[in-house]
What we know:
The chain has helices at residues 2-23, 53-57, 71-91, 95-111. By secondary structure, it is an all-alpha fold.
Amino acid sequence: MHYLALFFFGIICGSFANVCIHRLPENKSIVTGRSSCPNCKKKIIWYDNIPLLSFILLKSKCRFCKKLINLQYFIVELITAISFVLIYYFFGLTLASLLLSILSFFLLLFFL
């Protein structure tokens, strides 16, 4: 049960990492504003913004313009989720695992 919860938490953190990765270089807010398609600029509907699942269901295409969505979104969310689960697997629910999860999150942001 812990693994599943951590996987979902990792997906959510990965989704936020994607927001940071794409908005910070453009000096945009990471807290306010809705996600939009980088191609057609249409706002993404809430149910099309569910991490990993929407990417798969929409076949990695925008609902409106049908252009491909960058695979990086999917990969960042998946890597974050898997890293959180692996850290918990090896270190348990400890302060070290919390710090390693935070470190892995920021390393992902830094290198992408």
